[in-house]
Design a protein that fits this description.
Elements (H helix, E strand, L loop, with lengths): L3 E3 L1 H8 L10 H4 L2 E4 H13 L4 H10 L3 E3 L3 H9 L1 H4 L6 H13 L3 E3 L13 E3 L2
Parallel strand pairs: 1-2, 1-4, 2-3, 4-5
Helix pairs in contact: 1-3, 3-4, 5-7
Length: 128
């Protein structure tokens, strides 16, 4: 399997054992990467929910193969996505996740139901 991109919501579903987490199999997670933008989002939510900062960071990193730095190419892609995604209310973090997947031509995994409606040239897997 090639790399797959994780949205922050998918990583949080795994950590918090939420519905849909069972769809993220070991085979999928062996190739899982995340944008540093989305990794920061995971960190923020875990710390806000009471995790110690170091524990939150280690927990998030333990689930993925790599955290990919946010590049200028991804910034441009995320900015360009505004016309396609604005009507669905996607955040910059959401568009940054999609930008990494588009740049790598990789599938993306999320819990966000609205992403089912997107047509951005990559496979989008909604896990619940």
């Amino acid at each position: 399997m090639n790399e797959v991109v994780m949205d922050a919501s998918a990583i949080l579903a795994l950590i918090q054992d939420e519905r849909g987490a069972e769809n993220l199999t070991a085979e999928i997670m062996d190739d899982a990467i995340i944008s540093t933008v989305n990794l920061a989002e995971v960190q923020s939510k875990l710390v806000k929910n009471g995790y110690a900062a170091d524990e939150a960071w280690e927990t998030a990193l333990s689930l993925i193969k790599a955290a990919e730095p946010y590049t200028s190419e991804q910034g441009r892609i995320a900015g360009d996505l505004i016309t396609e995604t604005e009507k669905y209310g996607l955040s910059l973090g959401d568009r940054s996740c999609l930008a990494l997947a588009i740049a790598l031509k990789a599938p993306v995994y999320t819990t966000e139901q609205l992403w089912r409606n997107l047509k951005v040239g990559i496979p989008i897997h909604v896990i619940r």
